[in-house]
Design a protein that fits this description.
153 residues; 6 helices; Rossmann fold; binds 4-nitrophenyl phosphate; alpha/beta; 4-stranded parallel beta sheet
Length: 153
């Protein structure tokens, strides 16, 4: 399984989702590939925001070596599932989709809710970490409860 986490800047939320999912996948003994990207290009080549690095470190996860990149239409070919943080990310990614196959790969990470953008609010980084962690655990639990996954480790 190849999973891509997407937000606007690829420096706050999706790097957290990338690091948390990698951490949970490892704990679950799965060999999924996880990456992240942004729909905007302002921070390409940069590491995650220092506040995301700090909150992840607080929870024992090192995301400092990640590098910001832009979401590309080829990501639809590369990844099985593309998780976006909010409805604006959803619209931006769906705008690039070429067909129903591409569209079906894209969903909100929180199913029916959004992960708020913490860029202008320091107090949001901790709750954002917690909500992303919960979503990643739910995705793995859903997958692990799916009998069709047998043999796909
Ligand atoms: P992110 O947060 O989408 O969670 O990475 C943002 C980071 C940077 C900007 C906006 C949102 N920006 O405008 O530079």
């Amino acid at each position: 399984m190849k999973i891509l986490m997407v937000c606007l800047g690829n420096i706050c939320r999706s790097p957290l989702a990338h690091g948390i999912m990698e951490h949970e996948v490892k704990k679950a003994g799965l060999d999924w590939d996880v990456d992240s990207a942004g729909t905007g290009n302002w921070h390409v080549g940069e590491p995650p925001d220092r506040r995301s690095i700090a909150v992840a470190k607080n929870y024992g996860i090192d995301i400092s070596s990640q590098c910001c990149r832009v979401f590309n239409v080829k990501d639809f070919d590369e990844y099985d599932r593309i998780y976006v943080m909010d409805r604006s990310n959803l619209a931006d990614v769906l705008r690039l989709a070429r067909n129903d196959g591409d569209r079906q790969k894209v969903q909100l990470l929180l199913k029916n809710d959004i992960v708020p953008d913490p860029y202008y609010d320091n107090a949001l980084f901790d709750p954002v970490f917690v909500m992303i962690e919960k979503a990643c655990k739910r995705i793995i639990a859903d997958f692990s409860g799916d009998p069709s996954r047998s043999g796909t480790r």
